[in-house]
Design goal:
The structure holds two protein chains of two kinds. Chain A has seven helices and ten strands. By secondary structure, chain A is of the alpha+beta class. By secondary structure, chain B is α/β, with parallel strands linked by helices. Chain B has a single domain, classed as NADH:ubiquinone oxidoreductase-like, 20kDa subunit (Rossmann fold, 3-Layer(aba) Sandwich). The longest helix of chain B is centred in the middle third of the chain and has 13 residues. The structure holds iron/sulfur cluster (2 copies) and FE2/S2 (inorganic) cluster (FES). One iron/sulfur cluster binds next to α3 of chain A.
């Protein structure tokens, strides 16, 4: 007999080696996540995927599925926790969505919309963060980095480079690039690298592409992130591209 | 109608964009004023609010006067609502928070391109600037939040009709935007 867990009472089969997130995604069950992309080693840092496994909170993206686990996902308590976590992500950075090129295509914002987050709850940090616009084609706006390390992992695991790293701890945590000068232009990052396209937020942006799709017609303007995320994992089992890149490329085909 | 619901509105460190968006409810305004009367608001020119049911606050706080107005609203409105991105997180005015106030003033009034007769305004009538722009929930308790830059007319309509008809206000996915 094949092995199975239950998520909110629904039986979900899994194979050995799968995490709770893997099993859920394969079965079309959305568990909110930001630092996870199926094709990269899980990192377990954003805690948005927190679920209750046999009564204990665990990160679904790192926790292995085991036969008979009783997993709670869509409880009010977990939804409230996730909303608080998302609010913390917002107040720890500087997220002025009306002036952000990523608005409407941003997974942080989309998760917040999905959770019906209407306010920030906490006092704002307004941390001092820089913009690195030195590279000819790619820019980093550190104000919007949530330290998910997807760019770090994409650079190492897909691009065979080592352009990004996260340095420091707590409120001093920050994204660094692999160059003596500390500037993106002095790294070997190329615009075709997956690391340049993987960022779930507006922290890494491709220059001169930000407004090709008008605000109001963007991915999450009309579709919720659960639909988008499940469609992306379902229709492309190898999930070679993150959804954001797939959409960007799709658009370039039709246009300029 | 005997007891109309009393609504006050104000713009603190905002651009009046939220007020303009509110007016975009267009002819629905006629339905609204059947049950609502406006107290202090840029729409009425009443100077102080008294005994209101709903207070709509656009903008964050950037100066001492904003703080006084916000407290007046809190003291006189049963339900206080943060309207728009600036009220909720400071918004674009808060992008000055990383620049020392003196540098902002110097740039605007002394060294900026095209400044004539350079001097920092210091009339006694002018409210003093705060060193940072802050969202209003850091100053007084806020009961509801309407995100958006600005929130669409439908957001105002949905929120106010929910309240007026005695429902717990809620915004469906399509009405929640931060941009
Ligand atoms: S990165 Fe996302 S959440 Fe942050 S400002 Fe941009 S759109 Fe908003
Ligand atoms: S720049 Fe983007 S991808 Fe990289 S750690 Fe920050 S949020 Fe994640
Ligand atoms: S998605 Fe699991 S911790 Fe971020």
């Amino acid at each position: 007999m094949s092995k199975a867990i239950t998520i909110d009472g629904k039986t979900i089969p899994f194979e050995d080696g799968q995490t709770i997130m893997d099993a859920a995604m394969a079965a079309g069950v959305y568990i909110p996540h930001l630092c996870h992309q199926p094709e990269f080693t899980p990192h377990g840092s954003c805690k948005l995927c927190t679920v209750k496994v046999n009564g204990r909170n665990c990160s679904a993206c790192t926790y292995p599925a085991m036969d008979g686990q009783d997993v709670l996902n869509e409880t009010q308590e977990l939804i409230d926790d996730r909303k608080k976590i998302t609010q913390m992500l917002f107040v720890e950075g500087n997220h002025f969505c009306p002036s952000c090129e990523k608005t409407g295509n941003c997974q942080l914002q989309a998760v917040a919309y999905h959770l019906n987050m209407l306010d920030n709850h906490f006092p704002l940090f307004y941390p001092d963060r820089e913009v690195d616009a030195s590279h000819a084609e790619v820019m980093i706006d550190h104000n919007r980095c949530i330290f998910c390390t997807l760019c770090v992992r994409a650079s190492q695991q897909k691009d065979g480079k080592d352009v990004f790293a996260v340095s420091g701890r707590g409120i001093h945590k920050h994204l660094i690039v692999n160059a003596q000068s500390g500037l993106l232009k002095d790294t070997d990052l190329e615009v075709t690298d997956q690391a340049a396209h993987i960022c779930p937020t507006g922290a890494i942006l491709i220059k001169r592409t930000g407004y090709q799709v008008p605000i109001g017609e963007r991915i999450y303007d009309h579709k919720q992130i659960d639909q988008v995320s499940l469609a992306a994992s379902g229709s492309r089992p190898d999930a070679a591209f993150p959804p954001s890149l797939a959409v960007e490329t799709e658009h370039l085909k039709h246009g300029e | 109608m005997a007891n109309k619901i009393r609504v006050a509105t104000t713009s603190l460190a905002g651009c009046f964009g939220c007020h303009m968006s509110f007016l975009d409810i267009d002819e629905r305004m006629l339905q609204l004023v059947e049950v609502v009367e406006f107290d202090r608001s840029p729409l009425t020119d009443i100077e102080h609010c008294t005994n209101c049911d709903i207070g709509l606050i656009e903008g964050g706080v950037c100066n001492s006067e904003n703080v006084h107005v916000l407290r007046e609203f809190r003291n006189n409105c049963k339900i206080l609502v943060a309207v728009g991105a600036c009220a909720i997180n400071g918004g674009l005015p808060a992008m000055r928070n990383h620049i020392p106030l003196e540098e902002c003033l110097n740039e605007a009034y002394l060294d900026g391109i095209g400044v004539e007769n350079p001097q920092i305004p210091s009339d006694i009538e002018l409210p003093l600037l705060l060193n940072q722009v802050r969202p209003i929930h850091e100053v007084v308790k806020i009961d509801y939040f309407l995100p958006g830059c600005p929130p669409s007319a439908d957001v105002f309509w949905k929120f106010l009709t929910d309240l007026i008809e005695g429902r717990e206000p809620s915004l469906p996915y399509e009405l929640v935007h931060y941009d």
